[in-house]
Design goal:
Blueprint lengths: L1 E5 L4 H13 L5 E5 L7 H4 L4 E5 L11 H11 L2 E6 L20 H22 L9 E6 L15 H25 L2 E7 L23 H13 L9 E3 L8
Parallel strand pairs: 1-2, 1-4, 2-3, 4-5, 5-6, 6-7
Amino acid sequence: MATVIAGISGAIGSALAQQCLDAWPEQPVIGLCRHPERVPDALRQDSRVHLLPWQAECPSDGLDDAAVGDVLSAAGGLHNLIYAVGLLHDDTQFPEKRLEQLSAESLARAFQVNCTGFGLLVQALAPWLRGKQFKRVAAVSAKVGSISDNHLGGWYAYRCSKAALNMLVRNLSVELPRRYSPIACVALHPGTTRSALSEPFSQSLANLKVHEASETASNLFRILATLSEADNGRFIHWDGSDLPW
């Protein structure tokens, strides 16, 4: 059995990959990301790690189905699918503080990366979810995607795309068990993590609990490792509690 991690070049994705390798040393990891050369050296030099270029903005381009199939066939199938891709800001996009800053382009990009990419990746890998072994499908979401927990507003594109991701997880949690049982499909809130995503907000994070990427990965892996079929369809806080949709 193998683990697929989309977003392995990111702080959370790379730390989760190392957690998986340490816990399941016999299982290979297929790492998907836009820039494989940015993956930490320890992972790039590990023979159990198979890095493949893949872009959430263009999920139909670049995924080497044959290479993925070769690894999964040799490993005996897919054990875990973890989506750790996310777009909050970059050189051309930044979280909106008011309605006037909202644009169709930012909404479309956020939805593509934070939601659509996950759905199409699950679609592409779904045939590998067959079998009697328990499987996990997990999307790293965000508490700001909770509709009932939104009391501050702002961050339109990010909030809306994460809310859409949460709905996608719920949809999949209904369909996947019918076709690929035993399985659990969940959304995970990692908490505030020190990373490139949070770096521009260091001042506003001063009063918040901020985790190092290794801490976040440990918290999320602890949840993943203890998932059962009964957890299917949950939106789970990093401390293991349930978050409101």
